Amino acid sequence: MKPAIMVTRAIFPEVLSRLEEYFEVDSNQDDIIFTPSELASRLKGKAGALATASARINAELLQQLPGLKMVASMAVGYDNIDVAACTAHGVMASNTPEVLNETTADFGWALLMATARRVTESEHWLRAGHWTKWRYDYFLGPDVHGSTLGIIGMGRIGQAIARRSMGFDMKVVYHNRSRLSAEQEAHANHAQYVSKEDLLRQSDHVVLVLPYSPASRHTIAEAELNLMKPTATLVNLARGGIVDDAALIAALRSKRIAAAGLDVFENEPKFNPDFLTLQNVVLTPHIASASEATRRAMANRAADNLIAGLTGGRPGDLLNP
Ligand code: GLV
């Protein structure tokens, strides 16, 4: 008999078909957002789950699911998974690293450029019918080329963002839990390791790509925003909660910093509506990894992990070996 699994959210149909070769699949192609208790009841009796970053996998859930052997998440960030609780309950957990590095780095640049050069703000103005003449001072913004890029969180995605800055003749400074090797720094456009405070003081454009944890909560709050240049921009590609959104809204409103580009928010998708009242912020709905090829690769990688874990193999991306 095939093991039973649950695919907790809608997924590419061909990935579902692949899973059906190995498993009895209960899927949620209607993409209903389950409450924790609905998720628990759908997962009862299942050996595995293919989940996304929106599912909270914690001790309270795992206690109700003695038969569960594995949760394969389709995301690189896994702050939604209590890995220690999974280990305590004998549940394997996996994520999908690597496959999204370059796509996410591309999107970091899309947000950086759109934010600095006021792309969405000027488009909204044009669409609203305000464009009746050209003026020398319409939508002036800071330059990207030749400026200083500050990257907080210099993992694989941060390094891919730094590499791209070579073409813009930028200086790169970074802050990370640990310093990169000299070779890695050289590949990352000769990035220089600095303290978070020095990075915020020096950078013209700050990009956040660090993982969320209780320790990284509000890495950027009022005190940090106050260190930034008034002409600086801030991009958050990482997770909601790394930035104190209320403090950022205040800083954008008072022009304490020039602008922000945000793909992630505290409490998303119910983000702080005050963002909508500001012109100097570019807002996108958590799509940094959303290229056609990469989202397929992530789904297949999560499926590979689940298939390996439930057929006696070792998932390539096991978080709790
Ligand atoms: C997306 O946010 C991911 O962690 O993959």
Helices and strands, with pairings:
Layout: E1 4-7, H1 13-22, E2 24-27, H2 36-43, E3 48-51, H3 59-63, E4 70-73, H4 83-88, E5 92-94, H5 101-116, H6 119-127, E6 148-152, H7 156-164, E7 171-175, H8 182-187, E8 192-193, H9 196-202, E9 205-208, H10 222-227, E10 233-236, H11 245-253, E11 259-262, E12 281-283, H12 292-310
Parallel strand pairs: 1-2, 1-3, 3-4, 4-5, 6-7, 6-9, 7-8, 9-10, 10-11, 11-12
Helix pairs in contact: 1-12, 5-7
The site of glyoxylic acid (GLV) has 6 residues, from loops.
Describe the structure.
The mean pLDDT is 98. This protein has 2 domains: 4-99 and 292-310, 3-Layer(aba) Sandwich (Rossmann fold); 101-283, Rossmann fold (3-Layer(aba) Sandwich), CATH 3.40.50. The strands form 2 sheets. A 7-stranded parallel beta sheet has the order 8-7-6-9-10-11-12, sandwiched between helices. Strands 2-1-3-4-5 form a 5-stranded parallel beta sheet. Helix 1 runs parallel beside helix 12 and helix 5 packs across helix 7. It is built from 12 helices and 12 strands. It is α/β, with parallel strands linked by helices and 321 residues long. The protein binds glyoxylic acid. Glyoxylic acid (GLV) binds next to loops.
**C-alpha Rg (nearest Å):** 21 Å
CATH homologous group name of the largest domain: NAD(P)-binding Rossmann-like Domain
- Name the structural class: alpha/beta
- The strand order across the widest sheet is 8-7-6-9-10-11-12
Extract low-pLDDT stretches: none
String of helices and strands: EHEHEHEHEHHEHEHEHEHEHEEH
CATH class descriptor of the largest domain: Alpha Beta
Distance between the termini: 27 Å
